[in-house]
Structure formats: C-alpha cells, structure tokens
Amino acid sequence: MNTTTADSDVAKQLALSKIWNNREARSVILQILTMAILIGFFAFIITNAISNLAAVGKTFSYDFLSQPASYDINQSLIAYTSRDTHFKAGLVGLINTGLVAISGIVLATILGFLLGVLRLSPNYLLNRISYCFIEFTRNVPILLHILLIHGIIVHSLPRPKLASVEWNLADLFYLSNRGVFTPRPIPDDLLWISGVALALGIGFTIWFRKYAKRIQDSTGKIYPVFLISIAAIIGLPVLVFFVTGSPVTWDIPEFKRFNFQGGMVLLPEFMALWLALSLYTAAFIAEIVRAGILSVSHGQWEAACALGIRRARILNLVIIPQALRVIIPPLTSQYLNLTKNSSLAIAIGYMDIVATIGGISLMQTGKEMETMIIVIAIYLSISLLISMFMNWYNTRIKLVER
Amino acid sequence: MSEVTQSYVPGTHPDMAPPAGQRGILLWLRKNLFSSWANSIMTIVGIYLLYKIVPPMFNWAVVDAVMYAGNREECQALGSGACWAFIKDRYRILIYGFYPEELRWRVDVSFLLLCAALVPILFDNAPMRKPWMLFSVSYPFIAGWLLLGGAGLTPVGTDEFGGMMLNTVVGVTGIAFSLPLGILLALGRQSHLPIVKSVSMCFIEFIRGVPLITLLFVASTMLNYFLPPGTTFDLLLRVLIMVTLFSAAYIAEVVRGGLQAIPNGQYEAANSMGLKYWQSMRLIVLPQALKISIPGIVNTFIGLFKDTTLVLIIGLLDILGIGRSSMADAKWNGLSNEVYISIAIFFFIACFGMSRYSIYLEGKLDKGYKR
Fold first, then answer.
1. Which of A119, A273, A309, B216 is most deeply packed, by most CB within 10 A?
2. Any domain includes B242
3. Same domain as B307, residue B258
4. Residue B246 falls inside a structural domain
5. Is it the case that residue A279 has pLDDT exceeding 70?
6. Pairing relationship of beta strands A259-261 and A254-256 according to DSSP bridges
7. Which of residues 349-368 of B touch A (CB under 8 A)?
8. Do B277 and B218 share a structural domain?
9. pTM (2 d.p.)
C-alpha cells in the first residue's frame, strides 16, 4: 500500500514536470501568472483608492470642469476671464503648451542645423565656438537654463522706464524686465484678399512642382522650381497686400507712467521658457545633424562629382536625402523631449497645461486624481501623435531595398 | 661677377624651408581661418562676436567681482560684477543641505566610497575586479546606512537631505535600482510570451510618453491614495520610486538596442548548447548586449542626473532648490545669476566628465570590432 502511494506521488511529480518542461504549457502558465499578478495589483490599488477617497469624503467626478475657475491667467490666446470654467482654463493652458512647443521646435531646428553645420565647418574658430556652446548647453539641466534665463530677464534687464529710452529699437520694439514689447497688427477689411492670394500661391506651387517633375522625367528639362515656388508663395501675397493698400494697422506700444501700453508683449516667462527650450534642444539637434552628415560616405560626394552635378545640387539631391534618413528618428525624439520639457513652465509661472489644470485647478478643487489623469492623458496623446506622424514620415523616406 | 656656387653630390642637398606663406602659423591661419573670402568673413564675424561676449563676461565674473562682503549692498558698493561672496557664504548648504553639521563626515565618507565603488564598474582593467565588484553591488545599502543612520549611527531624517548631496542620492539610487529593472523590462519586451511582451511595452511607452514632472506630481499628491489606508511614506522615498521607474523605462530601451545588435546566431548557439532561457541570457546574450549598451546607459545616467533638479518643483530642496531659497534671503535678495551660474558650472563639470567617459568607452568598444 505504501509503495502505491509513493508510486502515485512520483507519477504526479512526473506529470507536473512534464507540463513544466513543455514549452507551450509553460508559456501559458507564465502568462496566466503575469495576468493574475497584474489584475491583483490593479485591484489592490483601485480598492485602496476607492476606500481612501471615501475616507476623506471625495468622489471621483469631472464635474469641476464646468465650475468657474476663478483664477487669472497672464497669457491667453483666446478670450479668458477668471469667471470662465476650469475646462476653459485647461484649454488656455493646452494652447500655451502648444504655442511654446511649436515655437520652440521651430527655433531649435533652425539653431540646431546651423550649429551642426558650423560644427563641421573647416573654419577653426567657428567650429570651436559652436563646440563650446553645444557642450556647455547640453551638460547643464534644462530647468537651470529656464531659471537662469528667467533670472537674467527679470533681474538684469532694465525696468520699462529705462527700457523706453535705452533698450528700444526704432520706437517700435522694447526690451525690458516686463517682457519684449512689439507692435501688434490689427487686420483691416481687405486683408482676406491677401489670404486668398497666399492660398492660391500654395496651390499653384503644389501643381507646378508636379508639372515640373513630369516635364523633367519626360524631356530632361529642369525648371527653377525653387525660385518660382518662392515667388508664388511669398511674392504674390506681398504684392496683393500692397496693391490693396496695406490693410493692416499697427498698435504700437507706448511708455506711460509705469509700464508700456498697447502693442503686444512676449512675457518674460514665455521668453525664458522659449529660449531655454530652444537652446537646450538645439544643442542636441546639432549633434544629431553632425552625425547625420558624417554618416554619408565620402564616396557619395565623389560619385556625384563624377557625374558632373553642381555642388548645390549634390547637396540637395544626394547628400541631404541620405543624411535625413539618419537624422529624422532621433530628431523626432528631441521634438518629443522639447514638448515634455515644456512642462517645466510651472517653475517660472508660465501657465501651461501642467500649471493650470495640474497646478492651480488641482489646488483649488482638491481633485488630484482627475486632474493628473487629464494631464497625463494629454501628454500621452501628444507623444503618440508625434511618433505616429514621424513613423509615417520615416516609412515614406525609407530606403527601398530589393 | 663671380657667382659663388656650391655643388652637391646628387641626393645630399639639405632640405630647404618651405616658403613663408606655406609654413608655421601663417599656413595654419590661411588654411583654417582665411581659406576663402566667405570663410574670412565668417572668421571676422566670429571674432567680433567673441569680442562682444567674452570681455564683458570676464569683467563681470573676475575683474569686477566681489569676493568678500557681508550682504548685497556691500557687494554693490565694492564692485559692479558678480557677488561671489554670496556663494562663499552659502556653499556648505549648497553641498550638504540641512544635514546636521557634526554628521557631515558621513556624507563625505559615502561620497568617497561611491568613487571607490565606481572604479570596477567603469574600468574593466581594474585589479581584483571580482571581489571589488561585490563591494560595488552592496554599495547602495552601505551608503543608505551611512546617510540615514540607525544600527549604531545617529539617525538622520530624509527631510534633512538637501543640496548637491540630494541630487547625488537621487541620481545614484535611480540608476542603481533601475538597471536591473530596465534589463528585465528589455527582456520582457523581446519575449515570445505575448502578455509579458505587451505589459512591458505598455509600461515603457507610458513612462516615456509622460514628462517626469507629472510622475513626480503623482508621487507627491496621489501615491498615498493607492496604498492601504494609514500607510504614510516618506516623500523622498516616493520620489526615488518614481525616478527609478522612470529611468528603468529609458534603460530598457537602451538595453533593447543592445539585445537587437546581438546576431541571431548567438541565441541559436546558446539554444543548441542546451542552455535554458535564463542561462543563455545570463551567460551568452546579456554580457555581450550590456557591453554594447554601456555608453547608452551612461548617457541615460547623465540625463537622469540633470533631471534630479526637477525635485525642486515638488518642494524637495536639492542644489537648485537651496540656491533659490537662499536668493529669497533679504540679505542677498536678487542675486540669481551668481547662484545659477555656480550650479551650472557644477553640473557642467559632472556631466561633461561623464560624457567624456562615454566617448572613451565608445572608442574602446569600436576597437573590438575592428580587424
């Protein structure tokens, strides 16, 4: 009788080890385990959250979004007063995030390409200047850049009264510790005609590019596509603008008693965040551009020269398309980093999405969970959108291999 | 009319110096700065820029700077430049934060031990590397004991941590604990098990898609809701957990790059030797993959170290936080440039050093594949 139980034990162990040694069975068991742990974890934190919220008498709801926010926002591209809702405040914050991210991306790209090309320049002096700038900028935390530039603007630039005399450009632009004051355009009735001209110019360019390519493919004749595109997109609207009699009046800032009145102002917070993000990201982009250009082998230059192509065309047709393939993927992640770093706005009081919904709204309503979920969801969707777009672009320019 | 001629046996004529424009500094100048008219214009613009920027900065930082003064008014009376007296007055608190004065030797000792622990990790030709490595692995716990106290040492609360020391603590803990987690996540992402794979992928993408600052906000405002009622835990510990999770996601991506660079033959060879999954990873794949990803890991660490300054936004007093709060002092009000520039120099030295190391490593790794 003893032996039979021992036998059945051995048989059981054998059966178990058989299951464990079977690859499929093991993978199923492991995955069920993972799933169970995961579900258990989420169940744990959700029940905790429910009981904790109940304990402090809070409910999970987004009702606060339709209640009045009752705080002011110093920079808003859409009409906003403190009587508007939290939702509107969040929207203003989101627009501010978008504004600083897009203007940052534009400036960082321009500066980054410039620095990257200078870094490769045979001119020793410029090469060294750009090297020092890049190394210093990217080895210092971005938050420190933001605070440093904000500090310089607020503490070291002159007060408006002094700025109105010394730091002024043609009585139109003023640089002061309250921000940069510039004239503000006010559109008149006839401006829409220039807008139509711009749309026409863009439409014509798209058509003309296709047409020129078709002609070149069939006959080999090359049109000056670039010049004609510039003329259509910039020249035509400018011409129409002046023909219709410059239908824009300018609201010019003027110094009155304590501060400037009228015009448009770039607040110190925006300037600091914008410049810091652009400079910091430009340093990284410069290294990416440099690596991209270096990655195109010298043979490509020589081959193109051997075909008798002009230098500008070699860059345009041979080098840049190949370098872009290396540059684009890391460039995307720099754009994403810039967008995410713009959340540091809260340190200097620029009212972006983190500072409005995740900052003041959170403090006023006490809805930590709801507001943080909104902020996280917004950043996640921005990241996913940008990376989706870049993946699409990447597949479009990818090398077609046979 | 007689010409002095000297004849040489063919091949014995001494080499003559190149013409004046083709040698020495003139040649260098012509080749590097004035090779074409466009180049010359750029050089002149560059010199003008330097002239406009460097002398005023030098004057501000050195010539007109004030080293000894009691407060801001005295500084301004003594010179128009930087007020370094302020930094001299505050540098201790910038380094140690509010760590008790008589216990600061413990911070110094743990920093020295950190340097010692890093040697076998950074240099693979260090003598006695294996036993030394054991020390390196146990270092985080030794440092934790030294800094926090307990078991024979006077306990120090984490709210007394601050300054440069807090940055180092957050950075080193973040990297030490995120490395194993990151490797696991990278393996999970490469796994054949669909659920494990998608869980790791979601985690990595989630963390990478969100700014660190929102995670820190979650840590400071929300984390308590997710724990059983009544548990309280230290803000620094919550921050450390978030920072660890954050950098684990980035390290996972770096390690994944390393794993993908290992040729398939290595995996197959390991399988054909009859090694199990963990054996083949531990003995064959990971040593190679980690070796290639070290420069990436160092770069992640540089990024993490710079990001440790963000803790100031949720109210921890790191070096930047202490700098800001000392600016609010009535005695030194408004001296932001001095503080920020000193801190910038500290970060520059630390991060530039690390990036040089990573470049040195890349060069060394390259050599292995050169035939």
1. A273
2. yes
3. yes
4. yes
5. yes
6. antiparallel
7. 351-352, 355
8. yes
9. 0.84
CA distance A25 to A30: 9
| A139-143, A171-175, B220-224: the lowest-pLDDT one | A171-175
- Which residues share a beta bridge with A261? A254
Backbone angles phi, psi at B296, to 5 degrees: -65, -40
Contacts 24+ apart (CB under 8 A), B335-338: B335/B72, B335/B75, B335/B83, B335/B86, B336/A147, B336/A148, B336/A151, B336/A152, B336/A154, B336/A155, B337/A148, B337/A151, B337/A152, B337/A155, B337/A156, B337/B82, B338/B82, B338/B83, B338/B84, B338/B86, B338/B87
Contacts of A383 in chain B (CB under 8 A): 208-210
**Cβ of A141 and B348 within 8 Å?**
no
Q: Sign (positive/negative) of CA torsion B199, B201, B202, B207?
A: positive
| The length of chain A, given as a count of residues | 402
Chain A positions in Cβ-Cβ contact with residue B218 (cut-off 8 Å): 372, 376
Spatial CA neighbour of A159 closest among A63, A268, A320: A268
At residue B8, the pLDDT reads 83
DSSP code string of A23-81: HHHHHHHHHHHHHHHHHHHHHHHHHHHHHHHHHTT-----GGGGSB-----S--SS---
Average pLDDT score over chain A? 82
A52 and B306 within 8 Å at the Cβ level: the answer is: no
Q: Are residues B325 and B200 in the same domain?
A: yes
Tell me, yes or no, whether B88 and B59 share the same domain.
no
Distance, in Å, from the CA atom of A314 to the CA atom of A332, rounded to the nearest integer, reads 26
Q: B329 and B211 share a domain?
A: yes
CATH classification code of A86-183+252-397: 1.10.3720.10
Domain that holds residue B59: 24-63
Q: So what's the ipTM on this one?
A: 0.85
Question: How far off is chain B from A60, nearest CA to CA, in Å?
Answer: 12
Give me the count of residues in chain B: 371
Q: Choose the mutation target among A44, A52, A132, A341 for the interface with B, i.e. most B CBs under 10 Å.
A: A52
CATH number, domain with residue B322: 1.10.3720.10
The one-letter code for the residue type at A98 is: G
Domain contains B261: yes
Same domain, residue pair B307 and B184: yes
Region A324-338: mean pLDDT is: 86
**Chain A contact for B312, CB < 8 A?**
yes
Residues of A in contact with B214 (CB under 8 A): 343, 354, 358, 372, 375-376, 379
B145 falls within a domain? no
Which residue is closest to A348 within chain B, CA to CA? B313
Integer Cα distance of A311 and A305 in angstroms:
8
CA distances (Å), origin A31, targets A18, B190, B191, B229: 18, 15, 11, 31
Q: What is the pLDDT of residue A108?
A: 94
For residues B197 and B304, membership in a common domain is answered with yes
Structural domains counted in chain B: 2
Rounded CA gap, B351 and B339, in Å?
A: 18
Q: Are residues B39 and B95 in the same domain?
A: no
| Lookup result for tokens 């146990």 | B138
- pLDDT tens per residue across all 371 residues of chain B: 456 677 888 888 888 887 776 777 777 777 777 777 778 888 888 889 888 888 888 888 887 877 787 777 777 777 777 888 888 878 888 888 888 888 888 888 888 888 888 888 777 777 777 788 888 888 888 888 888 877 777 778 777 888 888 999 999 889 889 999 999 999 998 888 888 889 998 899 899 889 999 999 888 888 778 887 777 778 888 899 999 999 999 999 899 888 888 888 888 898 898 888 888 888 888 888 888 888 888 888 899 999 999 998 888 888 888 888 888 777 777 778 888 888 999 999 999 998 888 888 878 776 655 44
DSSP state for residue B15 in the 8-state scheme: P
